[in-house]
């Protein structure tokens, strides 16, 4: 399916990056064509490419309207959002209501009850940190309060001297999943989005367990939307600021444990609910961030998640005397 330059002209550069639009520029300037990658289907044992590729995938978003209402919706080519009457994994149907760009704020594409993450799921990442390969998935959790949206700040906590980015593929659960085998778990995966598993590396090493290091507010950017399918062997790249060379570059085919296996494994211990998120691990190339850094994670077939690092400003402590005076 080809899109003309005129059809996409309303998109600002940032949205073009989000949408994963590839420009093919010849002698005449502008967008010549967009070729959608071949899409995967879930086979019984392996991931296969479709023989006949589909048009560009639908983008499912979650937004807050200017009136303060929360909605799930479908992002249109002109950036309007067609509102759904329920979350899409609850068979939400499109309504007649549309929101223009200036009428909504983009949120994280789901509001999980929990985020289950997987450590060392790429061999080269385990090696770069000096760790052995896990014999079973290495699980940890990030609280839902860590979730933030595309373009929202990542807050650098004063407790840490080393905060790292970790670009990851995130799986969104569409149905209750408990004690599932792999074949059943595969049907519980509703879609995919992008995540940044931000980590206070020094606190991770200091604490021995990872809850604090992985769980600060804003340490789980998600988005900007969910798609139902991604290319088999989709590539993940992480860029810092305006660098043209990615700091991270890997393929989801290099995972030690595949997403459906991870969902099944997790479900043997923890019930996954609709809207929950599983982070599938990060490839090699993780590194530190500094205040003001802009981290951009791209995954083929999804788009781009971008966030900037800000200082976390703590509220000044209020003395007991001042607190008592304020109550008088």
How would you characterize this protein structure?
Helices cover 16% and strands 32% of the residues. The protein is α+β, with helices and mostly antiparallel strands and 328 residues long. The chain folds into 2 domains: 35 residues, no CATH class; 197 residues, Alpha-Beta Complex (Fumarylacetoacetate hydrolase, domain 2), CATH 3.90.850. The strands form 5 sheets. Strands 9-8-19-13-14-16-10 form a 7-stranded mixed beta sheet. Strands 6-5-4-3-7 form a 5-stranded antiparallel beta sheet, with no helix packed on it. Helix 4 packs across helix 7. The longest helix has 9 residues. The N terminus is likely disordered.
Write the SSE topology.
Layout lengths: L4 H4 L4 H7 L20 E3 L4 E3 L10 E6 L4 E6 L5 E4 L9 E6 L4 E3 L8 E5 L3 H6 L9 E5 L4 E2 L5 E3 L6 E3 L1 E7 L8 H7 E8 L2 E2 H7 L3 H5 L4 E8 L7 E6 L7 E4 L7 H9 L9 E3 L7 E2 L5 E6 L3 E9 L8 H8 L1
Parallel strand pairs: 8-19, 10-16, 11-22
Antiparallel strand pairs: 1-2, 3-4, 3-7, 4-5, 5-6, 8-9, 12-15, 12-20, 13-14, 13-19, 14-16, 17-18, 17-21, 21-22
């Amino acid at each position: 399916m080809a899109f003309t330059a005129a059809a996409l002209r309303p998109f600002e550069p940032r949205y073009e990056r989000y949408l994963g639009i590839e420009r093919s520029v010849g002698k005449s300037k502008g967008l010549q064509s967009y070729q959608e990658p071949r899409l995967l289907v879930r086979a019984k044992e392996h991931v296969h490419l479709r023989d006949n590729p589909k048009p560009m995938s639908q983008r499912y978003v979650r937004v807050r309207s200017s009136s303060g209402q929360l909605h799930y919706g479908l992002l249109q080519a002109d950036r309007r959002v067609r509102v759904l009457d329920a979350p899409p994994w609850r068979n939400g149907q499109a309504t007649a209501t549309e929101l223009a760009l200036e009428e909504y704020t983009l949120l994280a594409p789901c509001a999980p009850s929990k985020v289950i993450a997987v450590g060392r799921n790429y061999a080269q990442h385990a090696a770069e940190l000096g760790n052995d390969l896990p014999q079973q998935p290495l699980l940890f959790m990030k609280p839902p309060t860590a979730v933030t949206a595309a373009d929202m700040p990542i807050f650098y906590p004063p407790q840490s001297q080393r905060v790292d980015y970790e670009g990851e593929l995130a799986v969104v659960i569409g149905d209750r999943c408990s004690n599932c085998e792999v074949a059943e778990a595969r049907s519980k995966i509703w879609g995919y989005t992008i995540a940044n598993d931000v980590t206070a590396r020094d606190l991770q090493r200091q604490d021995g367990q990872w809850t604090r290091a992985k769980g600060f507010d804003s340490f789980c950017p998600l988005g900007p939307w969910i798609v139902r399918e991604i290319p088999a062997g989709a590539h993940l790249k992480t860029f810092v600021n305006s660098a043209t060379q990615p700091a991270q570059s890997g393929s989801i085919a290099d995972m030690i444990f595949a997403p459906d296996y991870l969902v099944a494994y997790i479900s043997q211990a923890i019930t996954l609910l609709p809207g929950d998120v599983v982070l599938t691990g990060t490839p090699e190339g993780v590194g530190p961030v500094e205040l003001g850094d802009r981290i951009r994670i791209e995954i083929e077939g999804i788009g781009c998640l971008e966030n900037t690092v800000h200082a976390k400003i703590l509220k000044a402590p209020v003395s007991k005397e001042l607190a008592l005076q304020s109550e008088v």
